[in-house]
Amino acid sequence: MIPVGLVLSLIGLGIMLPNEIGGVVIGGLPLVTGLYLLSKGAGIEATVNKVIQEMRDNADAAMFSSLLWTATVFSAIFAVAEGYREYNTYVAEVSASVLWLEVVHSALAWIVIAFLTSTAGFMLLRLKRGSFSGRLLILGIFAMVVYSFVDTALVIATRVLRGEAYEFSVADIMGDLQYPMAWVVVLWMAMTIVRSLRTRQAQTERYWGI
User: Fold this and answer.
1) Coil, helix or strand at residue 110
2) Under a CB-based contact definition with an 8 Å cutoff, are residues 156 and 166 in contact?
3) What is the distance between the alpha carbons of residues 149 and 168, in angstroms, rounded to a whole number?
4) pLDDT in tens, 8-60
5) Which of 116, 193, 184, 120 is nearest to 152 (CA)?
6) What's the rounded Cα separation, in Å, for the pair 195 and 130?
């Protein structure tokens, strides 16, 4: 009954409002209906109910998860603001391809932070007290790996599209990938340490008997 009531309310609101605003409201009706059907088909409703149940079961983690999700919203706003500022700076100076690369590059850090905080908020709900999983540590380092590779790729692409001399030789590419490869090594070391700590924790919690 909720979808039917929502559709009828939007139609009534669109008729009551002035022509332009009412047309926008009625035109948004297929969008709202499509998003609802998409959420039902993708199982988003069940996922949301599961998250709510986990927040009820673990109040302390729910508080910190809410803070992380708030940081996600602000990071997304900062990403849009930074991209818009970069767009206004270069819109009259460079070509369209370079312009959009600069926009994405300027907002990349905030995009990664938004992804990291949103994912960490969901992972924090599933952490068990007194146990070490290392997932948040690995997630943070993995985010730095993705950021470093994308940042390097955007820098190279911007230089090429600007017409600067750049040779796609092994030496030059390996020189530019030193920073991302260093984070790959850090990620591998962190995963190895976390795996060993998990094994040691499982052995200490095992009951051997007499």
Assistant:
1) helix
2) yes
3) 16
4) 666 666 666 666 666 666 666 666 677 667 666 666 666 666 666 666 666 66
5) 184
6) 17
SS3 135: helix
Rounded to two decimals, what is the model's pTM? 0.68
Residue with tokens 């599933």: 126
Displacement of CA 188 from its chain's centroid (Å): 22
Amino acid identity of residue 136, one-letter, is L
- With residue 15 as reference, give the H or E element that holds it: helix 2-16
Burial annotation 21-30 (CB, 10 A radius, 16+ → b, else e): eeeebeeeee
Three-state SS at 205 = coil
Residue the block writes with tokens 């001399």: 165
Phi-psi region of 94 (alpha: psi -120 to 50; beta: other; left: phi over 0): beta
DSSP string, 2-64: HHHHHHHHHHHHHHHS-HHHHHHHHHHHHHHHHHHHHHHHHTHHHHHHHHHHHHHH-HHHHHH
Are the CB atoms for 194 and 138 separated by under 8 Å? yes
Specify the DSSP class assigned to residue 147. Answer: H
CA dihedral 34, 36, 39, 44 (to 10 degrees): 160
Query: Where are the chain's structural domains?
Result: 1-42, 59-204
- For residue 111, give both structure tokens: 């995009």
**Contact criterion met (CB below 8 Å) for 143 and 116:** yes
The first and second tokens of residue 166, run together, are: 């750049």
* pLDDT per position as a tens digit, 118-147: 888 777 776 655 555 677 788 888 888 999
